[in-house]
């Protein structure tokens, strides 16, 4: 088969757009040629930084695009701009698929062309724009809603990042259950325990970090539920006199200013650190520097940060909502994300018990080892193959 991969959301520059969906695109584009030499892949994108052997060579397995099984096609259009990307997806892409005799197209993020001349797979990462419409600007929300509803009807198969999102797609998009497949994401191999105490000391000194940290990672926006974490932390400072600093890594999103107002009203502004966006290669050091990682999000399509923290051996406390139990399992503590007292108690328990921290750290590393991009790629290829072998479970009538 000739398989086209729409990767125009790929963005490798440092910034908040380099997280989340971008990780999925990079992980899948990198892993597919490592595990499959039967099909021919063409990845369509506009970020020239991916057109480099390092992404599939030195940094990963040594495999490089050979021009026969794997090709990267760069667009001259600035598809990092949403209107231009939509133009490419809906107007240019159908002609490209027809001209290059593509057998199957995989929309790696929500969208398929309305006029699609090939079999189609679409990945739906989450449905936050339907569940939390107030968190999106109107134009973006309307396009996402229209695009994902069309893609769900047109696709031969729908891939979701978790069983939780699979159920959302069935319920909210009326997608046939036998065409929706949950395939978990992987964790980048750079996330691993750091055993060099001297290097860690140097990192702490460079960033002026105290010995004891409570860490959270994610865009600073309402559905990440950071106000509950901030209130729990303030309660621990006030009642337990904990010495820890709270570190909130991530770009400032919608209603970010309200978090600052809350922190100042609780009198803890000098104890909360905002490093901003942290590049992928630096994140393992932040995870390793933390005594506990806390992720109280209300909704996630998957939840890479707690998985990355576990891979680094950092104890994890996570929300028990949406997909997060699928990621954390029994390797971390799970709490009701709306219960400040429950989160306060969980944090107090972890920071106060060294043996528990060691146990959670070891369990987290073991669990994270089961989430790999090669397995994500293998299961994705299984979806491709199933379409062409006409298996009933995902065949498009």
Describe how the helices and strands are arranged.
Elements: E1 2-6, H1 21-35, E2 40-45, H2 53-56, E3 70-74, H3 82-99, E4 104-107, E5 119-124, H4 128-131, H5 138-154, E6 157-160, H6 163-172, E7 180-182, H7 197-206, E8 213-217, H8 226-239, E9 245-249, H9 256-265, E10 272-276, H10 283-289, E11 292-295, H11 304-311, E12 316-319, H12 324-328, E13 333-335, H13 340-351, H14 354-368, H15 373-388
Parallel strand pairs: 1-2, 1-4, 2-3, 4-5, 5-6, 6-7, 8-9, 8-11, 9-10, 11-12, 12-13
Structure description:
- This protein has 397 residues and is α/β, with parallel strands linked by helices.
- The protein contains 15 helices and 13 strands.
- The strands form 2 sheets. Strands 3-2-1-4-5-6-7 form a 7-stranded parallel beta sheet, sandwiched between helices. A 6-stranded parallel beta sheet has the order 10-9-8-11-12-13, sandwiched between helices.
- Strand 2, helix 2 and strand 3 form a beta-alpha-beta unit.
- The chain is globular.
- It starts with a strand and ends in a 9-residue tail after the last helix.
- 45% of the residues are buried.
- The C terminus is likely disordered.
Separation, N- and C-terminal Cα atoms: 20 Å
**Major sheet: arrangement of strands:** 3-2-1-4-5-6-7
What is the helical fraction, as a range of percent?
40-55%
Main sheet record: 7 strands, parallel
Q: In terms of quaternary structure, what is this?
A: single chain
Structural class, by secondary structure, is: alpha/beta
What is the 3D shape?
globular
Report the count of strand segments: 13
Overall average residue pLDDT = 90
Strand coverage percent:
5-15%
Query: Helical stretch count?
Result: 15
In the predicted model, the low-confidence regions spanning at least 5 consecutive residues are 52-64, 391-397
Rg, nearest Å? 21 Å
Spell the H/E element sequence. Answer: EHEHEHEEHHEHEHEHEHEHEHEHEHHH
């Amino acid at each position: 088969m000739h398989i086209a991969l729409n990767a125009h959301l790929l963005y490798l520059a440092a910034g908040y757009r380099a997280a989340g969906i971008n990780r999925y695109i990079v992980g899948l584009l990198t892993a597919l040629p490592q595990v499959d030499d039967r099909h021919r892949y063409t990845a369509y994108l506009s970020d020239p930084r991916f057109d480099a052997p390092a992404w599939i060579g030195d940094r990963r397995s040594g495999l490089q695009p050979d021009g026969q099984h794997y090709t990267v096609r760069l667009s001259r259009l600035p598809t990092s701009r949403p209107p231009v990307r939509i133009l490419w997806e809906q107007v240019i892409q159908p002609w490209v698929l027809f001209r290059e005799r593509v057998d199957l197209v995989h929309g790696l993020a929500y969208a398929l062309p309305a006029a699609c001349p090939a079999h189609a797979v679409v990945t739906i990462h989450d449905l936050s724009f339907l569940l939390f419409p107030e968190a999106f600007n109107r134009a973006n929300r309307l396009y996402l809603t229209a695009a994902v509803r069309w893609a769900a009807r047109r696709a031969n198969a729908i891939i979701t990042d978790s069983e939780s999102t699979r159920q959302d797609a069935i319920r909210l998009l009326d997608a046939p259950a036998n065409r929706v497949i949950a395939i978990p994401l992987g964790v980048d191999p750079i996330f691993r325990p750091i055993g060099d105490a001297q290097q860690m000391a140097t990192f702490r000194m460079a960033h002026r970090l105290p010995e004891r940290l409570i860490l959270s990672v994610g865009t600073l926006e309402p559905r990440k539920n950071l106000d509950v974490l901030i209130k729990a932390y303030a309660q621990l400072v006030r009642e337990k006199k904990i010495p820890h600093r709270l570190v909130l890594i991530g770009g400032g999103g919608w209603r970010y200013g309200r978090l600052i107002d809350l922190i100042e009203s609780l009198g803890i502004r000098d104890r909360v650190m905002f490093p901003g966006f942290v590049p992928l290669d630096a994140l393992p050091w932040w995870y390793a520097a933390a005594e506990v990682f806390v992720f109280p999000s209300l909704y996630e399509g998957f939840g890479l940060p707690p998985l990355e923290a576990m891979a680094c051996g950092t104890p994890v406390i996570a929300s028990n909502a949406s997909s997060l139990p699928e990621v954390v399992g029994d390797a971390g503590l799970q709490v009701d994300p709306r219960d400040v007292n429950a989160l306060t108690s969980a944090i107090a328990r972890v920071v106060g018990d060294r043996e528990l921290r060691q146990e959670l750290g070891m369990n987290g590393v073991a669990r994270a080892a089961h989430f790999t991009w090669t397995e994500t790629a293998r299961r994705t290829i299984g979806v491709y193959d199933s379409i062409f072998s006409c298996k009933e479970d995902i065949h498009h009538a």
